[in-house]
Specification:
alpha+beta; Nucleoside Triphosphate Pyrophosphohydrolase; 2 domains; 7-stranded mixed sheet; 3-stranded antiparallel sheet; binds zinc ion
Length: about 180
């Protein structure tokens, strides 16, 4: 799938999911109708006028580097056949940077520094926005949390385990790391 095809499929899936989960007004319970203006991607309540827009859940993902190696981990409940990067949803009241530091602390028991924005990708499972950063190891001893993450380690490019397939921003970050460590 090309990037453009992925984006289109992602968008359709997100809108469908959003319509299915916004059939009734969250304020008064009335059946919602599509907004009369088709460019207003919204559902409108004919009784109280409440307008619902598609909700997007921000999630962060980080590639953490240490001495030419990166942190990869194996998750217990999804993509278990691949090793991937630390990722998780942003909580209310958190900045993206707070969320990354918390996720890495919770899942890997380490602290990171020098967060740098890498890019973002809509991730319609069902309606997330992956926001990717590079980070550097700062302190602590790597230790998987044992529940969400069952294994973790620092991997050099010549010793990578099975990594996510092309198409995800996780893979784009790993490929960018490989390219930069080649130079
Ligand atoms: Zn209403």
């Amino acid at each position: 799938m090309t990037d453009a095809e992925f984006r289109q499929a992602a968008n359709e899936r997100e809108v469908t999911h959003w319509r299915e989960t916004n059939r009734f007004c969250g304020r008064c319970g009335e059946v919602m109708t599509a907004h009369p203006d088709p460019v207003e991607h919204a559902m409108l309540c004919p009784r109280c006028g409440f307008t619902a827009y598609p909700g997007i859940s921000p999630a962060v993902i980080a590639l953490v580097e240490k001495d030419g190696k990166i942190l990869l981990q194996r998750n217990s409940h999804y993509h278990a056949q691949h090793w991937s990067l630390v990722a998780g949803f942003v909580d209310t009241g958190e900045s993206l940077e707070d969320a990354i530091r918390r996720e890495i602390r919770e899942e890997a028991s380490i602290e990171v520094k020098n967060l740098r924005y890498f890019g973002s990708q809509p991730w319609p499972f069902p309606s997330a926005m992956m926001i990717a950063f590079r980070a550097e190891y700062a302190s602590g001893e790597l230790k998987p949390d044992g529940t969400e993450v069952i294994e973790s380690g620092w991997f050099a490019p010549d010793a990578f385990p099975s990594i996510p397939p092309p198409g995800s921003i996780a893979r784009r970050m790993i490929d960018a790391f490989l390219k930069s460590s080649d130079e």
